[in-house]
Design goal:
There is one protein chain. The chain is mainly α. It has helices at 17-41, 49-52, 55-71, 81-112, 122-133, 144-157, 167-172, 189-206, 223-233, 235-255. The protein has one domain (17-255). The protein starts with 16 loop residues before the first helix and ends with a helix.
Length: 256
Amino acid sequence: MQPMHWPLKKPSSTRFIELDMIRGFALIFMILLHLVWDLDYFGIFKLNTQFYQSNVVVQVLFFSIVGVCQSLKSDKEPLTDDQRRAKTWKIAKRGLYILGLGMIISLVTFIIMPDRPIFFGVLHCIGLSILLSIPLIRLREKAILVAVPCIIAGIVLGHIVVQNPSYLQLIIGLHQADIMNHTIDYFPILPWFGVSMLGVAVGSMLYKNNTRQFRFPDLSSTTLTKFCSWCGRHTLSIYLLHQPVIAGVLYLRVFF
């Protein structure tokens, strides 16, 4: 029997496979949930709303992993001003890129689904969360002091009804009681930025100085692990493509 390996440190040329696995699992679960939603939307299969409520698991996993990955970008060693500016700009470009993709998706939904367009969806929230985290990721474990108030504030705001919210109010988390009747995707910055910052705190503890602080078996040779980690490495591309593919196939099934 081959000995089980317990790697503690991430080699410089690789990634933490468990993070890719979790992200890949969340992505696969999300695609399944979206498939069920699309089947209901096209009248093929009645939606089991209780099943779809489990989507919150996917949401928490995604935003937590965003924060964990942000924590890996926090260097303990001193940086020169040029190095710090270059690093900050790299993170900012990533946030702006994801936020820009969200805006493009918003434009598309305003055209094809004007009754339920996406005002501020998951990509908007992730992109803005990355931008807001730039001055905060150096808090490391202390990021929990930002995370908890943001999560509590989001829960409180979620119970405040605003009949005609402005775009800024929607971003913050103030909305109609029946918000999901007005949009197909909604992720306010509160509490989800808080969940992301919670991921920063957890990541700083579990991957201090980019070193895994716990034992993890070498699962890189199993088929399931390879598939999940591959999905995790290509989450954004798969996310952008999966819904048009599913909806397109079901549309052809219903109308042709």
